[in-house]
Design a protein that fits this description.
Elements (H helix, E strand, L loop, with lengths): L6 H27 L9 H21 L5 E3 L12 H13 L7 H8 L11 E9 L1 H6 L4 E8 L2 E13 L9 E8 L4 E5 L6 E2 L13 E3 L8 H11 L6 E2 L4 H7 L5 E4 L14 H9 L2 E4 L20 E5 H15 L6
Parallel strand pairs: 1-2, 8-9, 8-10
Antiparallel strand pairs: 2-3, 3-4, 4-5, 5-6, 6-7, 10-12, 11-12
Bound molecules: adenosine-3'-5'-diphosphate and magnesium ion (3 copies).
The site of one magnesium ion has 2 residues, from loops.
């Protein structure tokens, strides 16, 4: 393999994402069984977020101590007397996923290794310990998402999707998929229960009449009335597949749906790099194109957000241009950008 094979990073990222995914599942089981955590407060997802970030950051630090991490969470609310109860729960859960146990101080330090500002230079990891927190709480889709970015380019992505069926055609079958991609090396899926990887590819759609598109469950995250108009213009007749988290990128990468639309609901919201880094590389390695609503590539070099992009449009390379045309017609009918 070439010097840029990222074989070590790939193996470590898989281990970290699997360990964190297991911790998230453990929190959810406790939540539904009502053992130590109750569904009434918002804490289950918060506890899972912190624990998963601690697990991934800790595993990354063992192998790549010099690498900065752009993680969604920080340990502010876990500090002091006010954070004691939550801190104790997070410590117990994080340690359940780690070989080398952390103590309280190390836990906080480990979570706060995720506060890196990002930028255009050097290596950094982007981590969303639970993407799709709303889906997690509903018992639906969520994903542990980890990416390696080098000089502003996403080079590697690993996503753990504990509630995603291995085969979309068998929704009641085994759940728990891991998606793995390295730039130039293709896109792969494996089960949580086996290390055998299978190559995946986007469906090579000939006619959009047979296609379906996916979008967020949350109307506050993506404009669902505009997406309906775009779908209509493209001749898509099927109802949208609404799904939380980067599971959408994973789904289209293996051909479950043809298009992913994420249309801005506010002019000021900036998409976060950890919400898109791993998923966007998976789609491009599976034969797709990912851009913003103007057709501009996502720029991961601007810090913690995609500050120069607006929304996300992902589709098979063959149809991406047509989708962007429809997006432009609906979002900017006057032709102004
Ligand atoms: N106004 C907004 N527009 C777009 N995305 C938003 C948003 N507010 C929050 N989000 C992001 O949407 C992500 C979930 O994506 P989706 O809606 O596709 O499931 C959230 O990730 P977290 O759940 O990790 O916080 C959050 O970062
Ligand atoms: Mg997220
Ligand atoms: Mg998150
Ligand atoms: Mg969040």
């Amino acid at each position: 393999m070439s010097a840029l094979s990222f074989a070590a990073e790939r193996a470590v990222a898989i281990r970290a994402v699997l360990a964190a995914s297991n911790v998230c599942q453990r929190v959810f089981t406790k939540l539904v069984n009502g053992e130590t955590i109750t569904k009434k407060d918002k804490s289950p997802v918060t506890i899972a977020d912190y624990s998963a970030q601690a697990v991934v950051n800790s595993i990354l630090h063992e192998s790549f101590p010099a690498d900065p991490i752009v993680g969604e969470e920080d340990a502010k609310d876990l500090r002091g007397e006010a954070g004691r109860q939550m801190r104790e729960k997070v410590l117990e859960l994080a340690n359940s996923g780690l070989e080398k146990a952390l103590n309280e101080d190390l836990l906080l330090e480990t979570i706060d290794r995720g506060t890196f500002a990002g930028g255009a230079k050097g290596r950094m990891w982007a981590l969303d310990p639970i993407d799709g927190t709303k889906g997690f709480l509903r018992g639906e889709q969520f994903a542990v998402c980890l990416a390696l970015i080098v000089d502003g380019q996403v080079q590697l992505g690993v996503m753990g999707c504990p509630n995603l069926p291995i085969d979309a055609a068998n929704q009641d079958g085994e759940k728990g998929c891991l998606f793995i991609t390295v730039k130039g090396q293709g896109a792969f899926q494996r089960n949580f229960s086996s290390s055998k990887e299978t190559p995946i590819a986007m469906g090579d759609i000939q006619s959009l009449a047979d296609a379906s598109f996916c979008e967020s469950v949350e109307s506050g995250h993506s404009n669902q009335s505009e997406s309906a108009k775009i779908a209509h213009l493209l001749g898509i007749t099927k109802a949208p597949v609404r799904m939380d988290s980067q599971c959408k990128y994973c789904s289209i990468s293996r051909g479950d749906a043809a298009v992913y639309l994420r249309l801005p609901v506010s002019a000021t919201y900036e998409e976060k790099i950890w919400d898109h880094a791993s998923g966007s590389l998976l789609v491009s390695e599976a034969g797709g194109i990912v851009s913003d609503v103007h057709g501009k590539p996502l720029d991961f070099s601007k810090g913690r957000t995609l500050a120069t992009n607006s929304g996300v449009i992902a589709a098979h390379a063959r149809i991406h241009g047509r989708v962007i045309e429809a997006v432009q017609k609906v979002l900017f009918p006057e032709g102004k950008l």
